[in-house]
Amino acid sequence: MKYLILGAGPAGLSFANRIFERSKECSFLVLEAEREAGGLCKSKEIDGSPLDIGGGHFLDTRRPNVNEFLFNFLPENEWNTFDRNSMICIKGKMINHPFEANIWQLDVTEQVEYLKSIAMAGCNTGQSAPALFTDWIYWKLGDKIANDYMIPYNQKVFGENLNQLGTYWLEKLPNVSFEETILSCLTRKAYGTEPGHSRFLYPKKYGYGEVWNRMAQNIKDYIEYGKVIKSIDFDKRMVTTSDGDSYAADVIISTIPWMEFEQMKGIPENIKKGIDQLRYSSIQIEYKDENISSDAQWIYYPNLELDYHRILVRKNFCPNSRGYWTETNLNRVGSVHGMQNSFSNKYAYPLNTINKPEIVNRLLTWARSKSVFGLGRWGEWSHYNSDVVVELGINLADKLTM
Asked: What is the DSSP letter of 131?
């Protein structure tokens, strides 16, 4: 075939559907390990309403071309639009995210303590930005926000050893200057750049997985399910599955984690060693049926005494629903509960370790020379949101079919 696509998550489905849209005569095939499409964005009906079993996923409105593409499958009138309302629980008190733009929501005495700490942060006293993650957080936000929120929260999400992470990706954090923080306290409103998903879409009647289900249905004759990839031969552009089937193509699009290939024929040893150094975190999603009195769609919990780091308040984005679900790093779960309403995800977040950019750039550059393209969160080993992944899939399809 012309294109062999590994994985039927948002990246693989977007690429495949764009190929199909541009030329229905083009030969392609999608191989998916699971029995249904969607990857981390799958949904199930729990307690009479949808629950996203890979964590909280929403469609950002900032990429109109992505929305227009997805509306071909789940029309615009089947989505609700929301203004983001996310909160942080700090020592039992709720304030809006981002923290440094909403200190004004705390008591005046607490505001003063946070402002004093921010004023002494390295970025405000002329110090150079440090290279280690933990040091960078203190340098950017000051001791108090670091200790009360950013350090414990990131430990819960990514693990105890935060200094394995680089600082190159922290520019994606909301940027609120010290002056803007002071203004927010004086005027009692938030200043600074808006965080991601400041406005977002979520299906009216379904979970987020519905759009991917419909994309899969659109190319149902081009997807094979239950195909676990075991090996790849870069020179022959061929993969073999756990049931012994082999597939070859002119071009391979891989959206799956690179370490899932048990054998990689033809790969240089230094690139293989780089793959072995890539790291990721795993999460467990668990549904709780009690209602929470909050208008927030999701709430962050840095408190280390709680195992979960975030909850999604379902009723605030999913009509006629109740309850909430938690997100917890699997390393913080005493045991996998095995409950009916608990879902484990081995691959949740690719970690931005210090040497990751060099490893991934070397891997992807070499793989492209063999007509094997990494795509999406796992193919490119980057913490992309789904809207970014869709755009990447569309753009790669357009580039390869010009």
From this structure: S
152 CB-contact burial (10 Å; exposed 0-12 / middle 13-18 / buried 19+): middle
Q: Residue 67 belongs to a domain with what CATH number?
A: 3.50.50.60
Reported as a single tens digit per residue, the pLDDT across 239-275 is 999 999 999 999 999 999 999 999 999 999 999 999 9
pLDDT in tens, 325-362: 999 999 998 655 556 789 999 999 999 999 999 999 99
Residue 331 lies in a domain: yes
Do residue 209 and residue 267 come from a single domain? Answer: yes
334: amino acid identity, one letter: G
**Owning domain of residue 182:** 98-187
Domain count, the chain: 2
pLDDT of residue 26: 84
Of the candidates 400, 349, 353, 402, which has an alpha carbon nearest to the alpha carbon of residue 372? 400
Within-domain flag for 297 = no
Nearest to 100 by CA among 40, 205, 175, 19: 175
Pairing of β 93-96 and β 59-60: unpaired
Statement: residue 294 has pLDDT above 70: yes
Measured CA distances, 155 to 272, 284, 392 (Å) = 28, 16, 30
Tokens of 111: 């505001």
72 and 167 co-located in one domain: no
The count of C-alpha atoms lying within 13 angstroms of the C-alpha of 247, restricted to the half-sphere facing its C-beta, is 25
- Interstrand relation of 372-374 and 342-350 (parallel, antiparallel or unpaired): unpaired
pLDDT of residue 170: 85
Q: Using CA atoms, how far apart are residues 357 and 66, in angstroms rounded to an integer?
A: 26
| 135-139, 170-174, 226-230, 268-272: the lowest-pLDDT one | 170-174
| pLDDT (tens digit per residue) in 31-62 | 999 999 999 999 999 999 999 999 989 999 99
Q: Give yes or no: residues 236 and 140 share one domain.
A: no
**Residues 23 and 134 grouped into a single domain:** no
